[in-house]
Amino acid sequence: MLFSFVLLSRLIALNGTKDINYTTQFPDGKLAKIKNSTIFPDSWSDTKILGSITDIGNSSPLSIRGRDGATFHRESIDGLEIDVIKIGDNVVSG
After folding, report:
1. pLDDT value at residue 4
2. Over 60: is that where the pLDDT of 94 sits?
3. DSSP codes joined into one string, 49-70
4. How many domains does the chain divide into?
5. Same domain for 57 and 24?
6. Co-location of 30 and 67 in the same domain
7. Are residues 91 and 57 in the same domain?
8. Phi, psi (deg, nearest 5) at residue 75
9. How far is CA 45 from CA 40, 51, 56, 73, 78, in A?
10. 26 and 69, same structural domain?
11. What is the pLDDT of residues 14-37, one digit of tens each?
12. Beta bridge partners of 81
């Protein structure tokens, strides 16, 4: 099964991050709900991105969601505020 992603809009911020709106197009042509995401700056390597997410995810959580125990972590690295959500030891968003 092949999915297509459709980029609807993009805004590049002064810190180099990109705010995008995108949707998924399924093989039958239907579109999923529009989602928003922030992309790391092009100047950040994959190693820096993954290391930053790991470091923040290993910090003390700011909150814990009651229904599933997901933890929310937030810190700034090189002036960029990064949010990480973990369920157990698994990062589900970063």
Report:
1. 75
2. yes
3. HHHHHHHHHTSPPSEE-TTT--
4. 2
5. no
6. no
7. yes
8. -150, 165
9. 9, 10, 17, 21, 13
10. no
11. 888 888 888 888 888 888 888 888
12. 76
Count other Cβ atoms within 10 Å, centred on residue 75.
15
pLDDT tens sequence across 32-67:
888 888 889 999 999 999 999 999 999 999 999 999
β-bridge partners, 63: 72
Q: How far apart are CA 94 and CA 83, in angstroms?
A: 6
Do 28 and 55 lie in one domain? The reply is no
Model confidence at 9: pLDDT above 80: no
- What is the extent of the structural domain holding 57? 43-94
Query: Quick check: 31 and 23 in contact, CB under 8 A?
Result: yes
Prediction pTM value: 0.74
Q: How far apart are CA 29 and CA 36, in angstroms?
A: 21
